[in-house]
């Protein structure tokens, strides 16, 4: 997407053809910082500490981590070791495992001497594929926005609520949940986005709001707990969110708080859509609630908040007593029964095993 008058992806190969450069998302919206990473440990840190985050972007970043490892040691043992070390950085987003599996699958048959070149090629392909998948998701989601727009008074915006950041910052470009929004703006369809701040790390307030502002999308920041109230008063026409892992049954694992939005949407007959590229589907899992590992992050993310001080410094402040412990489950699972549809690159699937098999028959 464009930052000012320059187009950026969230990750790209450095001139040294070894390192990658990433937008360090911890400093947005206050500072736009690019970091160069040239070691596997650096890649692991960037994923674990959320310099980069978002399921598809985590996967692409890990793919480049494998490529860096192949430059240093292309042996089978090193390939297996880097799979393990990067896989344990964050447990929930399936794209991480998907990308690591895809890199190992593509590299194992190749002679070690040729693996580095092949690894960088495959990592670049995965990044390019993500952009294409997200653009297709946008087209399929745009059709839904158009249907809703046709039922509104001329000029009245389609009011969309989104949670966390499933934007271009969560992917290589376009985003998943935001892709239909961007295409709607490009098509001249009036939209307005309610942006959930998304405690505790405020991906909505810090990242989605930054994206919306940068792309000229009318938007309003709200606290996470306001969504139900707005739905009760008819202020939300649709909800669209991303996902870190969707099961073969259509259960959706996403940022903590998503489930509560789905409950409010169901209670107010507001359509609740999930945008996802097919690598985010975990075909090996049926029941999301019992089978998806939910990342428990540090309670400090709840007790301490980053922001910009009046004198322009970026600092952390404590919002709770020192002695108060904090729990921080980073994701929750929305049962398929609460999901109106899964917006994939191939079309909108019913949130069910049958619906996903119909969309992806090759997955049998
Ligand atoms: C398109 S995946 C976006 C997904 O990832 C976010 O989690 P995190 O910021 O912790 O990586 C959130 O669940 C988003 O919906």
Q: State the order of secondary-structure elements, H for helix, E for strand.
A: EEEEEHHHHHEHEHEHEEEHEEHHEEEEEH
**Main sheet: strand order:** 8-7-6-9-12-17-18
Helical segment count: 12
Strand segment count: 18
Would you state the CATH class of the largest domain?
A: Alpha Beta
Please state the structural category. Answer: alpha/beta
Overall 3D geometry?
globular
Radius of gyration using CA atoms only: 20 Å
The CA-CA distance between the termini, in Å, is: 36 Å
Helix coverage percent? 25-40%
Oligomer: single chain
Percent strand: 15-25%
User: Which kinds of small molecule does this entry bind, naming each only once?
Assistant: ligand LNRAV4D5
Stretches where pLDDT falls below 50 for ≥5 residues? none
Supply the CATH architecture of the largest domain. 3-Layer(aba) Sandwich
The name of the CATH topology of the largest domain is Rossmann fold
- Name the average pLDDT: 97
Q: How many domain regions?
A: 2
CATH superfamily of the largest domain: Translation initiation factor eif-2b, domain 2
* Major sheet: 7 strands, mixed
């Amino acid at each position: 997407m464009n930052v000012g008058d320059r187009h950026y992806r969230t990750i790209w190969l450095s001139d040294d053809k070894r390192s990658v450069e990433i937008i360090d998302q911890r400093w947005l919206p206050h500072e736009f910082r690019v970091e160069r990473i040239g070691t596997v440990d650096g890649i692991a840190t960037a994923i674990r500490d959320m310099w980069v985050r978002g399921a598809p972007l985590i996967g692409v970043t890990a793919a480049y981590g494998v490529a860096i490892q192949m430059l240093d040691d292309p042996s089978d043992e090193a390939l297996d070791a880097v799979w393990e070390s990067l896989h344990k950085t964050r447990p929930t987003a399936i794209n991480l495992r998907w990308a690591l599996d895809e890199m190992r699958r593509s590299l194992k048959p190749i002679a070690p001497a040729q693996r580095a070149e092949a690894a960088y090629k495959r990592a670049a392909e995965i990044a390019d594929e993500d952009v294409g998948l997200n653009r297709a998701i946008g087209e399929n989601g745009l059709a839904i926005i158009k249907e809703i727009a046709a039922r509104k008074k001329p000029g009245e915006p389609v009011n969309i609520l989104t949670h966390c950041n499933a934007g271009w910052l969560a992917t290589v470009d376009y985003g998943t949940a935001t892709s239909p929004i961007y295409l709607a703006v490009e098509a001249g369809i009036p939209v307005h986005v309610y942006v959930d701040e998304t405690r505790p790390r405020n991906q909505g307030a810090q990242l989605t709001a930054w994206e919306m502002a940068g792309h000229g999308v009318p938007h309003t920041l709200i606290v996470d707990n306001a969504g139900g109230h707005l739905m009760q008063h008819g202020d939300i026409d649709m909800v669209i969110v991303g996902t870190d892992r969707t099961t073969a049954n259509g259960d959706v694992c996403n940022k903590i708080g998503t489930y509560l939005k789905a409950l409010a949407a169901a209670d107010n007959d507001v359509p609740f859509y999930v945008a996802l590229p097919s690598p985010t589907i975990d075909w090996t899992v049926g029941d999301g609630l019992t089978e998806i590992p939910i990342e428990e992050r540090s309670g400090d993310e709840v007790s301490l908040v980053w922001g910009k001080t009046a004198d322009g410094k970026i600092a952390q402040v404590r919002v709770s007593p020192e002695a108060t412990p904090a729990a921080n489950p980073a994701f929750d699972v929305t049962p398929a029964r609460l999901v109106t549809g899964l917006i994939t690159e191939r079309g909108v699937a019913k949130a069910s095993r049958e619906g996903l098999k119909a969309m992806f028959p090759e997955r049998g």
